[in-house]
Amino acid sequence: MSGVALVAHHEREAAADHAVVAADWCAAEGIDFWLTAEDGAAIGLERYVGKRPLADADVVLSLGGDGTMLRSVRLLDGAAIPLIGVNLGALGYLTEVEAHDLPSALDRFFAGPERGEWELDNRMMLDVAVNGTHVGQALNEAVIEKSQSGHTVRLLARIDGEPFTYYAADGLIVATPTGSTAYSLSARGPIVSPRHRAVLLTPVSPHMLFDRTLVLDPSEIVDVEVSGHRRAELAIDGQETALLDDGDIVRCRPSESSANFVRFGTYRYHQILKAKFGLADR
Q1: Is 66 annotated as catalytic?
Q2: What's the DSSP call for residue 49?
């Protein structure tokens, strides 16, 4: 049976109302609809909680903003399920439709890519491991940074197994092109089109002369080793993941999985960027 799963922002008042709109659309079309138990409890819609995993859905609706899109990707855990971002806040980089267009978006999706005039925007992700154990996937970035304020952390970066340099910095960001407009951008990293496949290595507040981002080939593997007595923390897409001690190694490599965003019509990333920064035509 066809199915639509929904992931909702827990603090947006409109989330519950629009979730019900999606549920009613699915009921009218004879399509299964469900929420996770966490989301159902958070927005007061326990009656729609289902036992099926998100990976069983034909499409996942992400109701919120870019943060909810990141959580949706994390919950899919690499499953190749199309994701429609429904915007409930300010202009985001990842969401695709406004909330009032949700029924139309579902009509078009289930009409198929040709009749519905949509396509998939496949975004590169990173597989992240600590000391050889897989700990998650990053759509935006993996960040290794200091765990104590007032101190830097010493990190050795290796590229394809070869030492590059030691960084004395607040941290290192290993980012995808999608993540180039997130934390990496605030650390003076470059903006990279999400159509590219690349790995960005951006230092955070480095206490050294070399303070530039490296833009690496997507086939290159980045290892970051904690060096010295000061502990570090690993965060993946903003989620604290692990505490790191001297000698611990974080490995970031391109994932075989991708995040698959539904795009209706032509997706023009640079126009979103222009609106975000208030850039004029002349």
Answers
A1: yes
A2: B
